[in-house]
Amino acid sequence: MSKGKGALFLLAIFCAKAIAEDITEPPSAEDDTEKPPSAVVILNTKTFEHETQATSGATTGDWFVKFYAPWCGHCKALAPGWEEVAHDLKEEGTVNVAKVDVTESPGLGKRFNIKGFPTLLMISKGTVYEYPSGKDWPRKRESLVKFATGGLFREVAADSAEPCPPPPDFVADMKRAAQQGAHAFVFYATDPNAIMDHEWGFLLTGFASGIVMSSMLMFGVRALFFSRPTETQKSTKAKKDA
Question: Which of 28, 45, 66, 67 could link 99 by a cystine bridge, Cβ 3.0 to 4.6 Å?
Answer without folding.
Answer: 66
